[in-house]
């Protein structure tokens, strides 16, 4: 009896874009997607991130099922693949101290320093309310806890694609990294899902494991995005343009970090009440193209999907085209 899906990590060929529903190809192969193989398989991949060293960082939750059917055969792992050879080059099992009984690691941001070995991953524990840091060089992890990782009790009501529901327990989720500052560090921007507000912390703090117990005042609260400002995914370009999904609005928002973080400096680069229902992830590639995936996740979790309709879409557009004629346009800040 087959449980779940055949493969959890897949890719599609960009040479076959004329196909309306292209076949998914297991990455890196079928064997690596073996369910509940805790040594070499992938059980349920939730987030991925490619870095400038052509490595693919893959978060595996080790669980399958949903709600009362959830099973947890394997521990959380961070898997890193070489995109040239398609071979796994590291598999890191999180320490017991990195997680708790409520843990659900929802997102990942990868920070490169002066070399490929000088790399850190930051991972948001959405339901356990923590931020986990992993050092590639030291091959170890540590966890930060903070009140800013918690949900806002006034922001737990959602309206997406005609569905009204409450996700009032959802904590820290979306992450994005600023370009390197003149002082040498980056800024990690983050926000809980049940929140309309943005927060920030220097990566110099996060990369110092001795700061875990003594960094409360290093975390900064920024102003809110305004109503209907729930965000699950965000990314920042090397020019300092942050893009993020506004899931209540079926839209992609933007903010130019040359301006103060304020709702008056936030704009919309795209909105579609049919095709952008739950834009679940957003990335910017090395060529300056923005990639967005929408998947009607709220319908899947709380209602049902119409399998006669298109439920999963991938969009791509140049960043400079998207932000043209918006408050985020780099040209207006020169």
TrEMBL record:
Signal peptide: which range, if any? none
Q: What is this protein called?
A: Protein yellow
Q: Where in the cell is it found?
A: Secreted
Q: What does this protein do?
A: Controls the pigmentation pattern of the adult cuticle and larval mouth parts.
One Pfam family matching this protein: MRJP
Keywords of the record, alphabetical order, are:
Glycoprotein, Secreted, Signal
Q: Which organism is it from?
A: Tenebrio molitor (Yellow mealworm beetle)
**Family in the record:** Belongs to the major royal jelly protein family.
Give an example GO cellular component term for this record. extracellular region
Q: Tell me where it mainly resides.
A: secreted
